[in-house]
Amino acid sequence: MTVAAKTSIAAGFGLTMGAFGMIGGLSGTLLGGLEGGDTSEMPAKVLWGLFVATLAPILGLGIGMILRHSAAAVSILLVWVFVVESLLRTLATSSRH
To answer: What is the pLDDT, as a whole number, of residue 86?
Structure first.
């Protein structure tokens, strides 16, 4: 029961922060006067971004629950975000060409 409560709170917090971040980015774009351009893919990108923002805290919670030391959990999460995802993104874009 505790795990379900922690997971739902983490997911809700991630979704909320993702939405606020997107609203802030859109507000900054509109206030800065940038041109809109092609917005046909925007709904899919917004949904994908909110999905990832919702799952990221759950990933952190899971790693934190598996590892006893929070420093190790934070280190693994940072390595995932800054190294593994960058490598996967690079490999995915290089395979398209």
So the answer is: 85
